[in-house]
Design goal:
The protein has 140 residues and is mainly beta. It folds into 2 domains: 56 residues, no CATH class; 79 residues, Immunoglobulin-like. Helix content is 0%, strand content 53%. The protein is built from no helices and 13 strands. A hairpin with a 6-residue loop joins strand 1 and strand 2. It starts with a strand and ends with a strand.
Length: 140
């Protein structure tokens, strides 16, 4: 089960059921923070006794910061847009959409030039294990 959001606006997404499996591994789905996974194991003994155990898996998180040069422009990170600089908590290893709308007006019309990591104007970045900053440079 994928638990998503912060209550009272939280909700769950059933993911997958594995019947007759005694062991294995899986790749966690790529999802926005806050979210967590709950794994449940149901077993039936040959005597007919049934038991269920669950464990909650909390993701490792990091911080992505978006800046602009000059500061104060609007950038996008996943489903939000905000005035720079701003930061958001994301899950380590998650894929995140960053975007630099162009043109923008701040004491004149400015056009996007580049991201500090050399990526495209609208790009996908994978969240590293430690905090990261992406700077969008604009020019007249």
């Amino acid at each position: 089960m994928l638990h998503h959001g912060q209550c009272p606006a939280c909700h769950d997404h059933p993911l997958q059921t594995f019947s007759g499996v005694a062991s294995g591994s899986f790749t966690a789905p790529d999802h926005e923070y806050p979210s967590s996974l709950e794994l449940s194991l149901a077993a039936t003994a040959s005597t007919g006794v049934k038991a269920t155990k669950s464990v909650l898996l909390l993701p490792r998180t990091t911080t992505l910061t978006l800046q602009s040069q000059p500061s104060g422009l609007t950038l996008g990170l996943n489903a939000i847009t905000a005035v720079t600089p701003f930061s958001r908590t994301v899950i380590v290893g998650s894929r995140n959409n960053i975007s630099a709308p162009s043109p923008q007006n701040l004491n004149g019309k400015l056009r996007w030039v580049s991201w500090s990591d050399g990526g495209a104007q609208t790009d996908i970045v994978t969240a590293p294990s430690s905090a990261a900053t992406y700077t969008a440079t604009y020019s007249h």
